[in-house]
Amino acid sequence: MASRSKITALLLLIFILILCLNAFAETKVKIKGDEIKYEKQGKIAILKGNAVVNFEETVITSEELILDQDKRIVFTDKPFKILTKKDGKDTEIIGKS
Question: For residue 26, what is the DSSP state?
């Protein structure tokens, strides 16, 4: 059974990633990874090894990222970093799942 803190951290991660991808539908998204699998039917990209999702002025990095284009979300259960720039100010969020 997962601990309460792990569940809270996972929910926070999902919330942050949804906020970061708010403009996802209208924005060109660039992806990179050592290994990339794309499931056309579900429009899901699975990035493994040095995974990077880059859109607008936001960069999300992790060892593994899953990008769901239909739901407009990125998620992971690995440690991650989100770098974003707003109004000329850099913000860095580092998280663990």
Answer: G
Q: Among 25, 65, 32, which Cα is nearest to 46's?
A: 65
CA distance 20 to 33: 19
User: Are residues 37 and 23 in contact, defined by beta-carbon separation less than 8 angstroms?
Assistant: no
Per residue in 45-89, pLDDT (tens digit) is 999 999 999 988 889 999 999 999 888 888 899 999 999 887 888
Residue where the block lists tokens 């999902």: 14
Question: Amino acid identity, residue 43?
Answer: K
Which token pair is 88? Answer: 């000329």
d(CA 19, CA 22): 5
User: Model-level pTM greater than 0.90?
Assistant: no
Of 86, 48, 53, residue with least CA distance to 72: 53
Q: Cα torsion for 72, 94, 48, 23, to the nearest 10°?
A: 20
Distance between CA 97 and CA 93 in Å, rounded? 13
